[in-house]
């Protein structure tokens, strides 16, 4: 859904961003800002300067105009956005009514090391934090069109994997926060996550499967892409 929104926005507003990826990353940064500013349990509110840093270089390596980011910041600070379907319950409660939460191990995308992360499953997304007290997630994985399965790893027998069954070899559309605060696209083609036991792993798989949504047009686009690639002339 977020990817479709970013693409559609750029189609209708071609002069705003250099690519849909910029809009995609900025959208997640805005969600994180909204939660930080309006969640009553977050004491250290994100200042404007940190919002600038979060979005540094996301426009194909260039910075977005500071006046645009300042306007977005002031708009969110003055009035949190809400989801109409939730009958008035805004996103400040996102992390406090999760479908499931708990400590898991996550395998890095570029550096293949296991790191302990606090995971929260809610609103068809999987969020992960470095600590339970963090005000912003280290990463957000939209579950739309993904699949989950049991996959054992060496010395890690209780693992599950998030993957895209129709786009093997392509990165999953997700976002993460770098150590310097910048929001960037994730680098994973799949996500390997390890639980503490078989029962815990199976419970997470069941919960994730229940949260996964499917875009009926996604498969049509995927098939079209494969056809174009197959018909492309080979060197």
Automatic annotation (TrEMBL):
Query: Which named protein is this?
Result: Cytohesin-4
Q: Where is the PH domain?
A: 97-213
Q: Which Pfam families match?
A: PH (PF00169), Sec7 (PF01369)
What InterPro entries does this protein map onto?
Answer: PH-like_dom_sf, PH_domain, Sec7_C_sf, Sec7_dom
Question: Which source organism?
Answer: Liparis tanakae
Cite the source lineage: Eukaryota, Metazoa, Chordata, Craniata, Vertebrata
Give one GO term, molecular function aspect: guanyl-nucleotide exchange factor activity
Database matches in Gene3D superfamilies: Arf Nucleotide-binding Site Opener,domain 2 (1.10.1000.11), Pleckstrin-homology domain (PH domain)/Phosphotyrosine-binding domain (PTB) (2.30.29.30)
Q: Residue limits of the SEC7 domain?
A: 1-79
For this protein, the record's SMART domains field holds: PH, Sec7
What is a biological process (GO) this protein takes part in? regulation of ARF protein signal transduction
């Amino acid at each position: 859904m977020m990817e479709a929104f970013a693409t559609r926005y750029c189609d209708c507003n071609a002069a705003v961003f250099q690519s849909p990826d910029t809009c995609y990353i900025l959208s997640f940064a805005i969600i994180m800002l909204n939660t930080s500013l309006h969640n009553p349990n977050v004491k250290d509110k994100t200042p404007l300067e940190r919002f600038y840093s979060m979005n540094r270089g996301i426009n194909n390596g260039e910075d977005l105009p500071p006046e645009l980011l300042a306007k977005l910041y002031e708009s969110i600070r003055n009035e949190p956005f809400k989801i109409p379907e939730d009958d008035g319950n805004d996103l400040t409660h996102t992390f406090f009514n999760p479908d499931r939460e708990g400590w898991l191990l996550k395998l890095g995308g570029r550096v293949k090391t296991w790191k302990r992360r606090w995971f929260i499953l809610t609103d068809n997304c999987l969020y992960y934090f470095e600590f339970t007290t963090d005000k912003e997630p280290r990463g957000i994985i939209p579950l739309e069109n993904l699949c989950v399965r049991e996959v054992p790893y060496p010395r890690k027998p209780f693992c599950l994997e998030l993957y895209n069954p129709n786009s093997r070899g392509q990165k999953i559309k997700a976002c993460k926060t770098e150590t310097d605060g910048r929001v960037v696209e994730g680098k994973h083609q799949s996500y390997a996550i390890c639980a503490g036991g078989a029962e815990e792993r199976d419970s997470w798989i069941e919960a994730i499967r229940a949260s996964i949504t499917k875009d009926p047009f996604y498969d049509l686009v995927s098939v079209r892409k494969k056809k174009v690639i197959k018909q492309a002339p080979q060197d």
